[in-house]
Amino acid sequence: MSLYCGIACRRKSFWCYRLLSTYVTKTRYLFELKEDDDACKKAQKTGAFYLFHSLAPLLQKSEHQYLAPQHSLLELEKLLGKFGQDTQRIEDSVLIGCSAQREAWFALDLGLNSSSPINASLQKREMETELKGSFIELSKALLQLNVKDASLLSTAQALLRWHDAHQFCSRSGQPTKKNMAGSKRVCPSNKIIYYPQVTPVVITLVSDGTQCLLARQSSFPKGMYSALAGFCDIGESLEEAVRREVAEEVGLEVERLQYSASQHWPFPNSSLMIACHATVKPGQTEIQVNLRELEAAAWFSHDEVAKALRRNGPYTQQLNGTFPFWLPPKLAIAHQLIKEWVEKPICSALPA
Ligand SMILES: NC(=O)C1=CN([C@@H]2O[C@H](COP(=O)(O)OP(=O)(O)OC[C@H]3O[C@@H](n4cnc5c(N)ncnc54)[C@H](OP(=O)(O)O)[C@@H]3O)[C@@H](O)[C@H]2O)C=CC1
Ligand SMILES: [Mg+2]
Predict the structure, then answer these.
(1) How far is the CA of 300 from the centre of ligand 2 (A)?
(2) Whose CA is nearest to atom 15 of ligand 1?
(3) Which protein residue's CA is at the shortest distance from atom 16 of ligand 1?
(4) Which CATH number goes with the domain that contains 339?
(5) In this protein, which residues make up the domain named Nudix hydrolase (predicted)?
(6) 311 alpha carbon to ligand 2 midpoint, in Å?
């Protein structure tokens, strides 16, 4: 689908109107809302709001899944009025996207910044009754959300958390002011602009050509193994971060890398996961697990991994006291990386 958009481009001596795709139209509209506070405020009038309380999204249970209800500005104003909150609070909302019809979507947290935490938790229960839903921790609900809601709520939570944690200028100590869309904060005294932070994390599936290396941290659910992950250090390239993390965590050197995909991951504090395949040098497969980082790491055969992919964890303890081997859920990029390797063990054939 495409739309004629009012954006004109000057070509030679006449104006021509280009046919813009829906995606470009949406992207340009969101750009305008981020840049122009008045346009953003106007968009709130016809927009839809997703509600949070202390970073937990408002959800409604429907059969086996959760739905994220939307509220209009009018409904939100009524709700705030009913709970004795100032409608000025709506200015704390952040822009998180828009529909193909240019309905802007916002997220607002009704619990953060409350003058009294006791009052906030009392209001939470009453609000849940009024809104016919519950504020549920995102980690507990994510697997039961559809893809669109999961992505929107993850983005919303990340942005709301960033604003909550960055209310003061780190140079002047003065309170910073958010723009209407919430795409930045500015210090009024020295004009320093703060943008939401993205933390890059590499996740690597190491292979020796026939087996792949999986590991677990003690904090993982019992029996679950994943690919090796680690935060990028400042000044590192993606390739350097992969080589360092693999060396740090399992004492191996990787020599061939292939980028696979990336994903925004909301836990525990929002990261940009960058997924890669890598291979070890031939014959160099002896693992030395760094026990400060990992509980265990091991090589797994193609068959073992293919079988585990077909199962869904978490599992209960077996009679012999152990837990069956299982892999991260489909939503996690680790799952996609492992699935890619099972379907096509690409690393053995990579160029140097
Ligand atoms: N979506 C997916 O498929 C998967 C996602 N992940 C995610 O990847 C992330 C990183 O994996 P993990 O193995 O824990 O990372 P690391 O191997 O880098 O180890 C984590 C430790 O590194 C330190 N650290 C360094 N920089 C940072 C930073 N910017 N933020 C937080 N801690 C930092 C912390 O140590 P200290 O506390 O001592 O300061 C932390 O405990 C996790 O958030 C995890 O949720 C992991 C696997 C799969
Ligand atoms: Mg790690």
Answers:
(1) 18
(2) 230
(3) 230
(4) 3.90.79.10
(5) 196-323
(6) 24
